[in-house]
Structures are given as structure tokens and as C-alpha cells.
Amino acid sequence: MTQNSENTLKVANQAFTYFTHGLATGEWQAFLDMLTEDFTFWFPMGKFHGLNTGKERAREFFQYVSASFNPGLKLASLDRITSNETTVVFEFRDEGFLLGQPYKNRVAVSFDVRDDKICGYREYFGSDGKSY
User: Fold this and answer.
1) 49-72 residue pLDDT tens
2) Residue ranges of domains in the chain, CATH in brackets
3) Over the stretch 90-125, which tens digit does the pLDDT of each residue have?
4) Would you say 18 and 34 are in contact if contact means Cβ atoms under 8 Å apart?
5) Angle at 117 between CA 25 and CA 63, to 5 degrees
6) 13 exposed, middle or buried (CB, 10 Å; 0-12, 13-18, 19+)?
7) Pairwise CA distance, residues 114 & 85, whole Å
8) Residue 42: exposed, middle, or buried by beta-carbon count in 10 A (0-12, 13-18, 19+)?
9) Which pTM was predicted?
């Protein structure tokens, strides 16, 4: 593993720690502080479907996630981490309540790293929201 790859993984792991804390508690500031000003994110559905740009849009998105999954999403397992020079993908299972209904899902999130910040995020999920 090259030094750049090691730094990418280190930065992404820290961001993922802040990300899962945000999912669980609704406290997103530490994660948001790791984003570049030109941060972009892609989400597969709903009002944030497609490509979104900027930290303010990211703040709106993550507040929306917390409101939808009140009182929070718990990381049930971290199944795989895959990385290269610039990108780290985390595959995990989470559970909680979506708008008051029991929720479980398999998710993959991708963090693009530039310097010591996250410049891009993509999220993919594929179960019915009730099973793993």
C-alpha cells in the first residue's frame, strides 16, 4: 500500500467514525467539518436523488436523514472496507426506525478523499429496508 493510499484510508476511517456517530445521534458537525467546500454527494432516491453539491446541501441532507431515522440509526455490522489511492468504500448493515417503522438495510457508502478532507460521497442500498 502506498503512503497516499494509507492516508486516504486513515482520513476515510476517521470520516466514517464521524458519519456513524451522526447516524446514531444526529450530531453531524464533526463529519461536516471534514468536507471540502466543493463537496459533492450522490443519493439514489427521494428529494436528494442524484448529484448534490456543496457543504450546505450536505448539511440539509444529513439533517433530513436524522429527522427520518429518529432517534437514530445503529451500525449493526461493518462488513467490508475497500480502498485505493483516492476512494474508500464501506459496506455495512444498519438498523433503526424509518418514520417510526422498523428498518434494517445493507448499505455501501463511498468517500472520495482529497488531501485530508472528504470531497465526494456516494450511497447505495439494496434491500427492502426490513431485512439484511
Assistant:
1) 999 999 999 999 999 999 999 999
2) 3-125 (3.10.450.50)
3) 999 999 999 999 999 999 999 999 999 999 999 998
4) yes
5) 30
6) middle
7) 10
8) middle
9) 0.93
